[in-house]
Amino acid sequence: MRDVTLALAAPSSGRMPGVTDAHRGRLRELLVVFGTLGVIGFGGPAAHIALMRREVVERRGWLTDQQMVDLVGITNLIPGPNSTEMAMHVGRLRAGGAGLVVAGLAFILPAGLIVLAMAWAYVTYGSTPAGEALLYGIKPVVVAIVGAALVAFARTAVIGPLRTAVALAVALLWVAGVNELVLLAGGALAVAALRVETGRPWAAIGIVLPAATAVASVNLLTLGAVFLKAGALLYGSGYVLFAFLRADLVDRLGWLTDAQLLNAVAIGQVTPGPLFTTATFIGYVLADLLGAVVATVAIFLPAFVFVAIIAPVAERIRNRPLTASLLDGVNAAAIGLMGAVSVQLAVAAVRDPLTIALLAGSAIALWWGRLPSVLLVATGAAIGLGVSAVGIGP
């Protein structure tokens, strides 16, 4: 109220001084925060969400852990790149529709440009850097960041024996190969049904690639349609993306070989930001810069639409008893999935005394709470490159 009063009292200058300047300031903040995360966001969606939590909950206080956990649950229910959609949700809550667009683009574009540079290197030289030394130092840091976020999320989302059982069951079933969407729906229904059953119905929603395909053989409209379909329908990990694109690009159209597609997905995994920037790489390989733009826009466009549609509904779900119970179940299931993915990441990342030391040092720094995530990730990257240079690392 005080801000509105000051704005009305200010002299007129042809614009809205208080509100407009504050809104622009928030958009700049979103640009900086999510642009930075787009550069340092190694490790996949679980790591991205953990990094976002550290920035928007711990360091800036834009959201509470409960709000963040609710967004994780809701985002898991719609197709598309989950961490990118999380960025859009945060942007919308912070600065409305413009914030949704700014946060989403800020998170996507740095990764897209990095992948585009790697695609150029492939087309020009026939190879791209593997990045093993970089990831050697970064992965243990990411594991620590994800672990800290999981502990914080669990305090909010995994409360009581029912939700604890759901989270553990989902983690085990996901490792056993059960589809993640089935697990999320099952978690939601289990919590809501058991609450009803107990009589509380209203307490209860370096890679060397083969030669590139000739540009002339690729139709841009068809290319765009392939990636638009992927962005609109895809749930799951990079391996699901591989299977989804293979049906069109390898089997139906014959534009890529299996080896090319697998290596293109690998490029998305070893670069920061959303895995869906694999589309940027494939688009460039198939149809140069215009192909990269078409593929990237097509695969990410549905996410902007889905978040814009579901966000107003999401804000009301927590306030309705039945849907709140369903959301609690989804949240517990989502934390179980995130935990299972984190264990797999830790097994792959922590494999010798140096990576153990990096994990422990990062955990201590996170507990201390004063070091920004970008500094921790940069330190891990520098150590990884340093030990590789002297022949100690991977």
Shape: globular
Strand order of the largest sheet: 1-2
Number of extended strands? 2
Mean pLDDT level: 76
Order of helices and strands: HHHHHEHHHEHHHHHHH
Q: Rg from C-alpha positions?
A: 22 Å
As a percent range, the share of strand residues is under 5%
Q: Can you count the helices?
A: 15
Structural class: mainly alpha
Main pleated-sheet profile: 2 strands, antiparallel
How helical, in percent, are the residues?
Answer: over 70%
- Amino- and carboxy-terminal Cα gap: 57 Å
Low-confidence stretches: 1-14, 198-216
Could you outline the blueprint of secondary structure elements for this entry?
Layout: H1 2-9, H2 17-40, H3 45-59, H4 65-75, H5 82-125, E1 127-128, H6 132-157, H7 160-175, H8 180-197, E2 207-208, H9 220-233, H10 238-252, H11 258-270, H12 278-317, H13 321-349, H14 353-368, H15 373-389
Antiparallel strand pairs: 1-2
Helix pairs in contact: 2-5, 3-5, 3-6, 4-6, 4-13, 5-12, 6-13, 6-14, 6-15, 7-8, 7-13, 8-13, 9-12, 10-11, 11-12
